[in-house]
Amino acid sequence: MLFSELGLSAELLRATEKQGYQEATPIQQQAIPLILEGRDLLAGAQTGTGKTAGFTLPLLQRLQTSEPQGNRRRVRALILVPTRELAAQVAESVRDYGRYLPFNSTVIFGGVSINPQISQLRRGVDIVIATPGRLLDHMQRGTIRLDGVETLVLDEADRMLDMGFINDIRKIMKTMRGDRQNLLFSATFSKEIKQLANEFLNSPLEIQVAGQNITAEQISQVVHPVDRNRKRELLSHMIGEGNWRQVLVFTRTKHLANRLAEQLQRDGLSSAAIHGNKTQGARTRALADFKKGDVRVLVATDIAARGLDIEQLPHVVNFELPNVPEDYVHRIGRTGRAGLNGEAVSLVCVDERKLLTDIERLLKQDIRKVVIAGYEPDESIKPEPIKNGRNKQSFRGSRHSRGHNAPAGASRGRGQGQRTRRAA
Hints:
The chain is an alpha/beta fold. It has 15 helices and 14 strands. The protein has 2 domains: about 5-210, 3-Layer(aba) Sandwich (Rossmann fold), CATH 3.40.50.300; about 220-400, Rossmann fold (3-Layer(aba) Sandwich).
């Protein structure tokens, strides 16, 4: 289905065409007409399916066709997201799709000075994209009012619950008018998400574009069993042997993300780490360098990577499996976006077998296991408990097992074939 068949205004169709998009994804086909009708919505969609455009386009059109109530300087639409990176991504989409409309938007998150945000709010904005913590700061300072909000979007609501934002969300919602439109988007539907929908949504319609908690079909998944102290060596080997030019690697902790990036850098692989302890400037620079190819390997924790939108990312590696099975779905959803193929690799040691079983139970499928020659796991090694997010010895010996198969100057691989682009 084309965007021109969804009842969008000429200005929005012009903007989607400017972005190079013509075909609507399944979530966009289902969500846009319902949102235009003013219905509350509980939408389940995997990351990379185009859900951001699925709520941004109809939100803009509803603002375009309705008169603001009360003070024209009050916020008319609020989009709540869990992380800074996702806030920046959504804000960019709002700007791109609203380029031919007379609306002002701003993005609010922590880790940067609050003063420029206050100045912009005082000038008046129609749309605010925010993380809960910084938004509450503004509310307490009296620099923002939400009683004029006509549409509320909770994006990646499951992650917001995982990060403990539920009480913040309740405080925020108490200040808003009761007749607003509510849109809740989530990659997974848990009991907690259902409870959240029952609490805040008014007779919502429910849509889901794929089976619950199922990963995208275009993502190839594989597990490589390996000893815990040879993971880094195997990772360097795979990147060099496969001439991977862009790899997103996940760890469970900030400490390991830093240390792994440093080790890979010494292996001759340009690397950077992003996590919650990094300043927003450092995270933005690392991501920009990764996108333009100056950084070959980006090592990230779950919180920092949520919302990363990297076009045509071919490889995601779970250096450590996540403690929460649903996070596996979110991680590997960074690849295989907008209909493109992707590869998700998990390096699994004996300590993580239970975590792998939990993930396979969630997916309702077994993930293919392939042992790499020369990296066969030692069956005599006993599992150790994973404490505080990771096994304390999971990096033992890595400084003595330097990879030698990943030359920094390896030639670039083949470019991706051209495919019809879809809105992200």
